[in-house]
Write a structure and sequence with these properties.
The strands form 2 sheets. The chain has a 10-stranded mixed sheet with strand order 6-4-1-2-3-10-9-8-11-12, sandwiched between helices. Strands 5-7 form a two-stranded parallel ribbon. The chain starts with 9 loop residues before the first strand and ends with a helix. By secondary structure, the protein is of the alpha/beta class. The longest helix has 34 residues. Helix 3 crosses helix 7 and helix 9 runs parallel beside helix 11. Helix content is 43%, strand content 16%. It is built from 12 helices and 12 strands. It has 2 domains: 236 residues, no CATH class; 85 residues, no CATH class.
Length: 377
């Protein structure tokens, strides 16, 4: 992807030199060159729909019109304004922009199969296992949650995913992209993730006409997130429909659903920090969140994918910054008490929650003090 500086309109072209490589060329966005999608396991589609989904949120971050140089799906064109209206309310820094693009005549979808995005975490395992008879393949994107430059961790993760799919009798398709090199300087990944996943779905539309994205929150927990049951389908086109799946269950429900499966016990991957290239470090908030849920269910000892059991002192020091981590900690505390687990562990988690509440009150007080000071001056 070639990106030139100084343009007032962001112009995007999609091209392909072979069936396993698709490139996107954009002019008017600064900072990155040579954006690509590559897979040796699937024929990739040279579709302008991928150009729109890849670039739209970035154009919104700059407040500049977006021109797609090839015709796009009428379905996607009709939904782009709705997507912008919604995402701009949730992320006020993103401003609706004009999209300049010709539309093509509706066409029968080339693909006929269904895939789900799969990273090996709780949400994606739940979506895969709930749709095991419906899903033809799982897709892992190198470059989304693990950098394309981190070859050691990529190899570790890919090996685990392959073992999982072999055990489940499903095909694993690995696709590599440096899309985040383009998006990260302009938009945070939480605000862009739906765009990134949708772009991959369009690139894979020669074979697949349906893509499942695993959701994070249950319906009653929903809050503004880029990947959401309202936003994901709006990035569908005439060649591929995108579904957001998993809002029927809370995280605890999902953990309970997948916990007895041997492939999950051996290969579940939840760590975000991956210190020293660890598959699961067993000490970060995300690892501890999952391990505490498994302990409440009485199955943590069966999970060989974690390096060790729960350390009570580490649990006591969990950083629960943000509503999500605190919410899941409260749920785990409730379930641990309900299951009559180790009182020392229960007490340690309760102390971590109490400490996070004190810090939160302090942050709110300081924020209010700054506001009062600004008003008085």
């Amino acid at each position: 992807m070639v990106i030139a500086r100084g343009g007032k309109i962001m112009k995007v072209t999609v091209s392909s030199s072979s069936g396993d490589l698709v490139s996107l060329a954009a002019r008017g966005l600064s900072g990155v060159e040579d954006i690509y999608f590559r897979s040796s396991q699937a024929e990739l589609a040279e579709t302008a729909d991928a150009g729109l989904t890849a670039a739209l949120t970035l154009a919104m971050s700059r407040g500049e019109p977006l021109e797609i140089m090839q015709p796009i799906s009428r379905v996607l064109s009709a939904r782009a304004d709705d997507y912008q209206a919604l995402i701009s309310r949730w992320y006020p820094r993103l401003k609706p922009v004009q999209v300049l693009a010709a539309t093509r005549q509706p066409a029968r979808a080339e693909g006929s199969e269904t895939f789900c995005f799969f990273s090996g975490g709780v949400d994606s395992f739940y979506t895969l296992l709930r749709n095991i008879d419906r899903v033809d393949a799982a897709v892992y994107v190198h470059g989304f949650d693990v950098s394309v430059d981190d070859t050691a961790l990529r190899s570790l993760v890919a090996g685990s995913l392959r073992r999982t799919m072999n055990g489940l009798g499903k095909e694993l398709i690995e696709l590599e992209t440096d899309l985040r090199r383009m998006s990260d300087p302009h938009v945070t990944w939480p605000a862009y993730v739906s765009s990134g996943l949708a772009t991959v779905a369009h690139v894979l539309s020669r074979r697949f006409n349906r893509a499942l994205i695993a959701g994070t929150l249950a319906y009653h927990e929903l809050q503004p997130l880029a990947s959401h049951p309202l936003t994901d389908p709006l990035l569908s086109g005439d060649q591929v429909a995108i579904e957001h799946h998993g809002c029927d269950a809370t995280r605890h429900d999902k953990v309970a659903f997948i916990a007895r499966h041997p492939m999950v016990q051996q290969n579940l991957r939840v760590c975000w920090e991956n210190p020293d290239g660890d598959y699961n470090c067993g000490r970060c908030e995300k690892c501890l969140r999952t391990m505490l849920g498994l302990e409440a269910l009485g199955v943590l000892d069966e999970f060989t994918c974690f390096p060790s059991g729960l350390d009570i002192d580490v649990v006591r020091q969990i950083d629960l910054a943000g509503r999500g981590p605190r919410h899941w900690a409260v749920v785990n505390l409730r379930e641990l008490r309900r299951a009559n687990r180790d009182p020392k562990l229960v007490r340690a988690l309760a102390e971590a929650i109490a400490r996070s509440d004190v810090r939160r009150v302090g942050r709110l007080a300081r924020r209010q003090a700054r506001r009062n000071s600004a008003v008085s001056t």
